[in-house]
Amino acid sequence: MKPMQREVLNYIGGEWRRPLSPAGIEVLNPATGELLAVSPQGSAADAEAAVQAASAAFPAWRATPPAERIQYLFRFKQVLEEHFEEVARLITTENGKTLAEARGELRRGIENVEVACGIPTLMQGYNLEDVAGGIDEFMFRQPVGVVAAITPFNFPAMIPLWFLPYAIACGNTFILKPSDRVPLSAARLAELIAETGLPPGVVNIVNGGKVAVDALLDHPEVQAVSFVGSTAVARYVYARASAAGKRVQCQGGAKNHVVVLPDADPETTTQIVADSAYGCAGQRCLAVSVAVTVGEARGWFRESIAAAASSLRIGNGLHADVQMGPVISQASRRRIEDLIAAGIAEGAVAAVDGRGVSVPGLERGSFVGPTVLDGVPAESSLTETEIFGPALSLIHAADLDEAIAVISRNSYGNAASIFTSSGAAARKFRNLVPAGNVGVNIGVAAPMAYFPFSGWKSSFYGVLHAQGRDAVEFYTAEKVVIERWPKYWSRKF
Questions:
Q1: Which residues have CB under 8 Å from 68's CB, separation 6+?
Q2: N or C: which terminus of the chain carries fewer CB neighbours within 10 A?
Q3: Is 285 assigned a catalytic role?
């Protein structure tokens, strides 16, 4: 595949505009190292233009009936389906995940478009006649105004679609600031939604880095901000945006644990945990990072997961026989390999060591092989570090209570899973484990689009999560109306 070397433009007010800032980072195909594009640095002026376009579009869009607003989403779903394979290949090209994983990502994104098409029902309020003599009370939901989303590199299509459909279906106008590492998928989404005839300014894209982000966080006309990324940046975004009086939802990092009990089915458990740990090269916020084996599960699971990791075929995700692609960049590769080395230095044993992997013909790719670190000490820095790569740590517990205690000590609370044949053990785990997304014999506890993508502790800042009813509440303001009509009440019929 020839390098695209595509110019990264902003989409503002229904037009593609050249950024008002210098060139920023190079966008490279992580499998081949080929140059795809160059992202702009981003500027406050770019952000300002996007906000002004969104603000200008808001009054007319808000006045558009919900039943009419969702017609654009129905058409958006249709064009996404028509261009499904093309968009999936673009995701793989700029992100590196396998084509099967890209298809799964896009399918989850489309599910959110489908759910948002239910806004005429989901956005309904409620009322009560005669709260007092002759007085009625109503609650309406109204859009909040201009809203923004700041999204990461690991799901360049799905995560923008956690926010965009709900925001505009509720009557808001929307600004997307995608990761500057993967701007092309977001641009293609904008091209496709433009095909629906959506009015100019309802959806906008501004590219760049921190300068553009800060301008959106500070802008008085931006009413709400959504963010997905690392915990450190989530904390920053939440603090700065909320200080400016905005409603904010920030999905942060994770250190997801899976507990393997002795009565778990060895073959199925191993396959599911391997898929969770090494799918998308471990670059997802729901990937399992730590497996806690209980009792005699320690022996068989260590051997089986090491065998599964060693057997995975890595390479260019566009090739059908590849099971794991590269990480996003050479800088990420070096960071992950350094963390693996630190874990070994602190006492872990590399049952499988994925450092130094080279794929023939793809020597410029940013590959890290599947890694299994056995016996990671409790005091190791890896217990609190989000590796965000294909490295699975193994630790061991005497019983389920000790395993839950291990998870409870961790500062993150995004997801946790258990593998067992015992309903009693599963019920105890799901009730006590301090995580927002819980799996029972499920390796990646990813909620469907009509459920919130939950997260606890340092994995989430805010109150309302992405997706489903939470999204509708986040993107609407409740207005309560209490009314009396004295002349009407006194009339005789």
A1: none
A2: C
A3: yes
